[in-house]
Structures are given as C-alpha cells and as structure tokens.
C-alpha cells in the first residue's frame, strides 16, 4: 500500500452536520479505496502558491472514488474553518492516501469490538460501524459516544437509525446537557459508564478509542484499570493544534 | 502544478524557515500514541543496550542519573504535521551510553515499556544528535509525553523518539518497528518529508 503523490479531488457535497462540523464528500479519480479507520492528508493551495496540509480521518470505507470526511472547526485554525465555512461543491483540493495501517478494523475477526468516541473522534469509528454493519458483524460491536450535547453529535441520525434497525449497540454519554426526556446522568465517561456500556474484559474485546487527547488518556487509563490488557486498546488522539 | 483551492489562504499563518515542508507551528504539545499510557515505577525502571553479539549493558534509574546530563534545546517535528520550536530537555547523550558497548552494528531498534518499537540507523544516534531524555521544560517528563524517559532524536520525525523507552537492540540489518510496519517511513527525515511508505 505504498502511498503515491498528491491526487486532485473535487468537493461534490458539503452539508452541515452540527453547528461546528460539516460532512464533505470528495470525488478522487483513481482513489484505490480505503479500510475502515484510515485517514487522508488534505492539501490546500492558495492562488499565490501558499500551501497548508492537515490529516483527516475518513468516515467512509471500501472501494469507490468518493470519500467522506467530517470536519469539525477549530476556532483559531487555518484549514478547518475553510473546509467548514468556505468550501463549496465544485471546489478543488488535493489528497494523499489512504494512510495508516493500525487504527483499522477488518472483517473476519471473532472477537467483540468496542468503539469509544469523544466528539469528532467518531469519524474513523463511523467507518468501522458502517463496515461492520455491511459485513453482518454489527451484533459484535458496541459504540459509546461522548458528546457535549445532542446537537454536537456528528452522524447522530445515521447512528440512531442503524441502532434501531438492530445494528451496532449505541450508548450516548452527554457531558454538558442531555436532550429532553433523557433518563441517564450527565457528565464525563467514568468507570460506571464503561462498566455499563462496554464489553467486559472477560469477553476479550478489541477496543478502539478516538477523540481529543484528554478524553483518550482518561478513557484508556480507565479501561486498563478495569482489566483490559493495554495491547487490546487501540487509540487515536486528536491533538490540540 | 498544484490544484488551487478557490478562496483558500485568508487565515494563513506566518511561515518560519525553521519549519520543514508541510509542517505547521503549534504552541501546544500534542500526543501521538497507539495505545494507553504505561505507568512505570522508577524503582523498576531499567535502560539496556543489547549488542548484535548478545552482550547486554544495563542501567538502573540511580545509575542513569549519575551519568553526565546534557541540556538540549531543539525543534521537534511530528509526522502528523505539527512542529514545536525551541523545546528544552535534559537527558543523557546516546554517545555516552554507546561508549559503554562494543558494536559494529549499523541499526538500532528502540524498545519501549508497553511494547512500542522503532528502528533508527545507529549512526543517527551518535555525534550529539540523540538522547534519553527525562526532563521537559524543567520538569520531570509527564507519562503522556513518554516519562519517566523517552528517546529524543529531534532531527527525525518524532515517532522515532520512542516514549517510555527501556532499551536498544543493535542490529546488522534494518528491520521495521511499530509504525514502520503500519505505513510509515523506515528513516523519517522531516526536511525531505520521509513520512510514508
């Protein structure tokens, strides 16, 4: 899977999904397809030649020449505000990838799969949800998704829909405010939440944790404390930059 | 010729000649790790070097602290594209450590608590270019940044600077470490963008 050079890509769809995030569909002629959980480098070039590059997780998986990104705006960023506010269908940019061979899920494994997302950390895990659903492996997958409020949840409708159709088991955790009628508590993911909403260590799940650094550090530490072997916990941290 | 992205560039950051191509400046200290952060007790901590012939040289934390300690001021560059300028570290030079072993090996595999590995040509660990660092910014190195001690090889992408390092295995032939088996470059020079396979 040697990574080639930069490939031109065209934005074919740009839709808001939360107040600060947008789903982008990019058409990439010659895209070789990607595994669930991989990422891509995006390069933007200004008219005077100035360039900036950032990495984004891919929410889609499999063959085909269209990929989906979900970009959350970093307020003082230079690339994410352009992708969330400015870019329009028909605009062009460049991509390199797919990248990364570790934080990926491949069908065929016998073990249960635990996904734990914080905020925009859902994106590579959404690719795994979709891949597992298509592989008829959804019954072995549980997802715990921590968001500030319901409206901050990227992919909320799709996740609710697939869960109610017998797909991946879904547990929400609200850290700031819950929607009306919510029976559970509000707050950070803690040991009680992990015990109630995730596969227990005895089932020997493989665990994928993705989100901001502080979230991932906290959750991964707690999982080890609950008895999950560190080697069964794969993490991807979104740095604060 | 690169594709121009319509309307991009309004929020650009100032460029800096100390930034390698494709990198941007951060004031934070982001974290890249593949799994949970290991917690290592200083009483249990060891750093060892095993040569290609199998000879082992090992230091306890106390023995390690008695070695000559150097101050290092350097820029660091992560393959995820952040760079941090003017970071300050304290640690023991690999020159000091390698002086204690007999070797004709050409490569080293760094091993970490938690199982992480990364491969580096042995020459690139010599001549004042690599350290085992245990202080950052005047404080003991945080576990999430690799404490109690990490490798510091700042002229290569930062995944080569193995966190929670516990030793080196010296090898005649190059072998891929953890990220090197998972899509990243065997060498990792930021100035020539040796990022991926």
From TrEMBL, chain A:
Keywords carried by this UniProt record: 2Fe-2S, Iron, Iron-sulfur, Metal-binding
Q: Does the keyword Transport apply?
A: no
What cofactor does this chain's UniProt record say it requires?
Answer: FAD
Q: What is this protein called?
A: Ferredoxin reductase
- Domain FAD-binding FR-type as annotated: residue spans: 4-105
Q: Does the keyword DNA repair apply?
A: no
What Pfam families is this protein classified in?
A: FAD_binding_6, NAD_binding_1
Q: List the GO molecular function terms.
A: 2 iron, 2 sulfur cluster binding; oxidoreductase activity
Family annotation (InterPro entries): Cbr1-like_FAD-bd_dom, FAD-bd_FR_type, Flavoprot_Pyr_Nucl_cyt_Rdtase, FNR_nucleotide-bd, MRET, OxRdtase_FAD/NAD-bd, Riboflavin_synthase-like_b-brl
Q: Looking at the record's lineage, which domain of life comes first?
A: Bacteria
Automatic annotation (TrEMBL), chain B:
Which InterPro entries does the record associate with it? OxRdtase_Mopterin-bd_dom (IPR000572), OxRdtase_Mopterin-bd_sf (IPR036374)
Q: Where is the Oxidoreductase molybdopterin-binding domain?
A: 35-179
Which PANTHER family does this chain map to? OXIDOREDUCTASE MOLYBDOPTERIN-BINDING DOMAIN-CONTAINING PROTEIN, PROTEIN-METHIONINE-SULFOXIDE REDUCTASE
Q: Which domain of life is it from?
A: Bacteria
Coiled coil where? none
Query: Could you tell me which Pfam families the record lists for this protein?
Result: Oxidored_molyb
Return the annotated region ranges for Disordered. 1-23
Q: What is this protein called?
A: Sulfite oxidase-like oxidoreductase
């Amino acid at each position: 899977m040697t990574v080639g050079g930069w490939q031109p890509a065209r934005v074919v769809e740009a839709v808001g999904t939360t107040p600060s995030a947008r789903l982008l569909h990019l058409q990439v002629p010659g895209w070789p397809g990607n595994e669930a959980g991989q990422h891509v480098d995006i390069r933007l070039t200004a008219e005077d030649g100035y360039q900036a590059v950032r990495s984004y997780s891919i929410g889609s998986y499999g063959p085909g020449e269209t990929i989906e990104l979900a970009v959350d705006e970093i307020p003082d960023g230079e690339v994410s505000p352009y992708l969330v506010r400015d870019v329009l269908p028909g605009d062009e940019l460049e991509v390199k990838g797919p990248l990364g061979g570790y934080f990926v899920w491949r069908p065929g494994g016998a073990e249960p799969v635990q996904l734990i997302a914080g905020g925009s950390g859902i994106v590579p895990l959404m690719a795994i949800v979709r891949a597992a659903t298509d592989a008829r492996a959804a019954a072995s997958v549980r997802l715990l998704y921590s968001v500030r409020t319901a409206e901050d949840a990227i992919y909320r409708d799709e996740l609710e829909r697939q869960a109610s159709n017998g797909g991946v088991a879904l547990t929400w955790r609200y850290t700031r405010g819950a929607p009306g009628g919510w029976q559970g508590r509000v707050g950070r993911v803690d040991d009680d939440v992990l015990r109630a909403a995730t596969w227990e260590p005895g089932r020997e799940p493989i665990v994928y944790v993705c989100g901001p650094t502080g979230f991932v550090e906290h959750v991964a530490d707690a999982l080890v404390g609950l008895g999950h072997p560190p080697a069964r916990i794969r993490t991807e941290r979104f740095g604060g930059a | 010729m690169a594709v121009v992205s319509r309307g991009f560039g309004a929020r650009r950051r100032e460029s800096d000649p100390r930034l390698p191509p494709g990198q941007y400046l951060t004031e934070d200290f982001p974290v890249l790790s593949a799994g949970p952060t290991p917690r290592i007790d200083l009483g249990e901590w060891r750093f060892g070097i095993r040569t290609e012939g199998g000879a082992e040289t090992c230091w306890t934390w106390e023995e390690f602290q008695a070695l000559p300690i150097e101050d290092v001021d350097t820029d660091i560059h992560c393959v995820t594209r952040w760079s941090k300028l003017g970071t300050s570290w304290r640690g023991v030079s690999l020159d000091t450590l390698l002086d204690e072993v007999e070797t004709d090996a050409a490569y080293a595999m760094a091993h970490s608590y938690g199982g992480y590995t990364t491969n580096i040509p042995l020459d690139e660990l010599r001549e004042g270019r690599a350290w085992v660092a245990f202080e950052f910014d005047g404080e003991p190195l945080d576990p999430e940044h690799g404490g109690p001690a990490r490798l510091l090889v700042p002229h290569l992408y930062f995944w080569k600077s193995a966190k929670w390092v516990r030793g080196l295995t010296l090898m005649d032939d190059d072998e891929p470490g953890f990220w090197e088996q998972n899509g990243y470059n065997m060498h990792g020079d930021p100035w020539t963008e040796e990022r991926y396979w």
